[in-house]
Amino acid sequence: MKLRLLTQLCLVSYKTLIPTFFPKRSLNSVSRMSFQLGMDLQMVVSNLEKLAPLSLAESWDNVGLLIEPSPPHIVKTMMLTNDLTEQVMDEALEKKVDFILSYHPPIFRPLKRLRSGTVRGAWKERLVVRALEGRVAVYSPHTACDCVCGGVNDWLGQALGLGSVVPISHSIASSTPSGASHRVELSIGRDVDAEEILSRLKSVEGAGVQVCTVRSDSEDLLRVMVNCTGPALACALGLLSPYTSIYQTVEVLALSKPPVPNAGPGRLCTLDEPVTIATALQRIKAHLRLQHVRLALGAQCTLESLVRTMAVCAGSGSSVLNGVKADLYLTGETLLVEVILTPFFSSHEVS
To answer: How far apart are CA 133 and CA 54, in angstroms?
Structure first.
């Protein structure tokens, strides 16, 4: 499922990495793409990050370029896989692959050593050693691909048919629109040389100054707002501190990073027309091209019970779906106790 979507999302071509859709293509666990003209590794990575920005990934995740051969590294052949196992690495080396795009990150927990022998439990260490020796780059988008608009969760959310699909929670932008982290606000009266102070504030690198006139106690004041980066904040406050009457009016506000529109973990889907659980199962299996899914029916529910809303989360959805009210929950995996306690739960697991 996720490999098919990765193939739909990206194709390396001569000049760029472009969104592509293969509606009739049948994919196994591994897919290989070859390109006559190569592309520098950093350009491949840059284009992948444009498709699924790494800033959208969950904080606990390990995404991006995980294994980087020494430069220059030209990518002519890319292999896509859901999980990078030793068998997949065997195939990649045999076919002289330059780049592996693995949905799940093969490096998740920190590695304390890199061994190439047959030590039990050291297969991930062997993967890293073999990738570097074979000059194979490894990249994982994982939850960045889940959260991005048009990504895995949106694709899953289309399973039941027409309706609205919105993120369960929103991803947060990596920075504010201005790039500033704080805003300093202050007032300047007529008893101070405003031009000198404004000139000095505008000279601070990383500070953006805005000025307006306000009326206070029958007196016109200059209201100054300075958007600052972290280093600029310290400079601006140090510059203002000698002006006692002004410094007493200073307020420092932390700027919040805005939510990213239509992006975030999980999706809440509201159908235009309700369907029975039996119909929902048929549509989910058809959408995922699967013969079987796991279903846990809620208490006093039957296959004829109606579904109007569906909460979706690729992978383990326990933390994302916790507290979300829906008639049906579609997730990659969940704990048995959560299945038992959830009043109306559909668990779909794809390996």
So the answer is: 27
Whether the CB-CB separation of 193 and 157 falls below 8 Å is answered with no
Rounded to 5°, the CA angle 24-29-34 comes to 70
Closest to 78 (Cα-Cα) out of 135, 133, 126, 136 = 136
Answer for the pair 31, 7: CB distance below 8 angstroms, yes or no.
yes
Q: What is the pTM assigned to this prediction?
A: 0.76
CA distance 272 to 232: 51
Contact (Cβ atoms closer than 8 angstroms) between residue 346 and residue 313: no
Q: Give the model's pLDDT for residue 32.
A: 61
Which residues in the chain belong to E strands, given as ranges? 11-12, 17-18, 30-40, 64-67, 74-81, 99-102, 137-140, 163-167, 182-188, 207-216, 219-228, 251-254, 267-276, 294-296, 306-316, 328-333, 345-347
Running DSSP on this structure, what letter comes out for residue 172? Answer: B
**Residues 6+ away with beta carbon under 8 Å from 52:** 9, 141, 144, 145, 148, 151
19-33 pLDDT, tens digit each: 333 333 334 455 666
Asked if residue 182 belongs to a known ligand binding site, the reply is no
104 belongs to an annotated ligand binding site: yes
What letter would DSSP give residue 131? H
Q: Please give the helix or strand (H or E) that residue 319 lies within, else none.
A: helix 318-321
What length does the chain have? 351
Residue found under tokens 């953006």:
208
